[in-house]
Design brief:
There is one protein chain. The protein has a 7-stranded parallel beta sheet with strand order 3-2-1-4-5-6-7, with helices on both faces. The protein has helices at residues 9-23, 43-49, 65-81, 95-106, 126-137, 146-154, 167-182, 185-189, 204-207, 210-223, 235-244, 247-252, 263-271, 281-290, 304-308, 319-328, 347-359, and strands spanning 2-6, 28-32, 56-57, 87-91, 111-114, 140-143, 161-163, 197-200, 229-232, 255-258, 275-278, 294-296, 312-314. The chain is of the alpha/beta class. The structure holds uridine-diphosphate-N-acetylglucosamine and uridine-5'-diphosphate. Uridine-diphosphate-N-acetylglucosamine binds at residues 8-10, 35-38, 41, 62, 93-95, 126-127, 202, 235-236, 239.
Length: 360
């Protein structure tokens, strides 16, 4: 039996690409940590993407890192003890991932890590800490890119690394055209394709400090001079913008804050956009695969292929750098995307195969 632990929006997307392949070979016990709990960050992904309902909900909720990670560990521990899984499957780099890696390691249950080997080399990001620990403790590293494999080799972990491709890309390839047909989000928002920009932001480094958040707002307002900015705001960000009292000026300058969207609506919105501004890992990659130029609101990225291909620029929180990059987009940023760098759309199946071969 495989115990899969998920808990955040991008992990539901990743599990959607893997779970059905896993269930062709194994019994899967799906555990939801409860790190994300709002319908628009959780339930909607299970419904839209056909992820089976969780067998257990740990209800960890929000909190500082220690409280949240500890709550997940405390609730997970008995599930890993009995019935003891043959393997724990964890995704990405969140506190849910870290808690899963720690509990499994102490119970001496092997862990397979999907999205192993990703590095920003910036330890100020909580995700970087989570990734490094999860990889150190994992028995099987399922890597999305060659860069990830090389990172693990440098850390002496290459022997257990397998290049399977990117599981989010599997879904983007299949569901991108479906979203174009099925979602009416552009009509609902009164938008014409290519006449707007999409923005998302939720990194603590960008939104937690009021001064930094002001700069983020400035970048968005400056970008809105080129085209209206549609901003499906993560609840962390929405709360901080409210406390700052910056809602009205964003709105006045053409930055339209809306609630987070479900996967199909967001995918349609992204694929129809002239450009995307984001600090999300998943969104950078999905923009690349959709051929939508991306400005990343960070100084580093784990998804270096998007930058090397010319479709992603790291602009940090510099309004002028963002505006300059947006102007250039009238031309073209680089060569057309090479979807092959993120796999062939079969990463989910290969994850299941690698786990089967690992367990013998
Ligand atoms: C987490 C991950 C991040 C990932 C992101 C995906 C960590 C350290 N961070 O960041 O790597 O990119 O998920 O979206 O694990 N909140 C709600 N409703 C919810 C969930 C959260 O209102 O359903 C609010 C709460 O105020 C909470 C805040 O958002 O305090 C932050 O949530 P949290 O899960 O701690 O971190 P994220 O910013 O979502
Ligand atoms: N996403 C979504 N609705 C939104 C914003 C993002 O469905 O309003 C999807 C997006 O398509 C991608 C995933 O959520 O598949 C990315 O999650 P997020 O940005 O929260 O996390 P990260 O990838 O940075 O860890």
């Amino acid at each position: 039996m495989i115990l899969t632990l998920v808990g955040n929006r991008p992990q539901f997307v990743k599990a959607a690409a893997v779970s059905r392949h896993l269930r062709e070979r194994f019994d899967e016990l799906l555990v939801h940590s409860g790190q994300h709990y709002d319908r628009e960050l959780s339930e909607i992904f299970f419904e839209e993407l056909g992820v089976p309902p969780p067998d257990h909900e740990l209800g960890a909720g929000s909190g500082d890192h220690g409280k949240q990670t500890g709550a997940i560990m405390t609730a997970l521990e008995p599930l890993v003890a009995r019935p003891r899984p043959d393997l724990c499957l964890i995704y990405g780099d969140t506190n849910t991932t870290l808690a899963g890696a720690l509990v499994a390691a102490k119970a001496e249950v092997p862990t397979a890590h999907v999205e192993a080997g990703m590095r920003s080399f910036d330890r100020s990001m909580p995700e970087e800490v989570n990734r490094v620990v999860a990889d150190r403790l994992s028995a099987l590293h399922l890597c999305p890119t060659e860069t990830a494999v090389a990172n693990l080799e440098r850390e002496g972990l290459g022997g257990r690394a397998r290049l399977v491709g990117d599981v989010m890309a599997d879904l983007a390839m299949v569901l991108g055209p479906v979203a174009d047909r099925r979602s009416d989000v552009l009509d609902r928002l009164g938008l014409e394709p290519r006449a707007y920009i999409v923005a998302t932001a939720h990194r603590p480094g960008n939104v937690d400090d009021p001064g930094t958040l002001r700069r983020l707002c400035e970048v968005l307002r400056r970008a809105a001079r080129a085209a209206p900015v549609i901003f499906p705001a993560h609840p962390r960000t929405r709360e901080r913008i409210r406390s700052l009292g910056a809602e009205a000026e964003l709105d006045a300058d053409g930055v339209r804050q809306i609630s987070p969207l479900g996967y199909l609506d967001f995918t349609r919105l992204l694929r129809g956009a002239r450009a995307v501004l984001t600090d999300s890992g998943g969104v950078q990659k999905e923009a690349y695969l959709a051929g939508v130029p991306c400005l990343t609101l960070r100084d580093t990225t784990e998804w270096v292929e998007t930058v090397e291909g010319g479709w992603n620029r790291l602009v940090g929180l510099d309004p002028e750098a963002a505006a300059g990059a947006l102007e250039e987009l009238g031309e073209r940023l680089g060569d057309p995307p090479d979807p092959g760098v993120y796999g062939r759309g079969d990463a989910g199946r290969r994850v299941a195969e690698e786990i089967a071969s690992f367990l013998g």
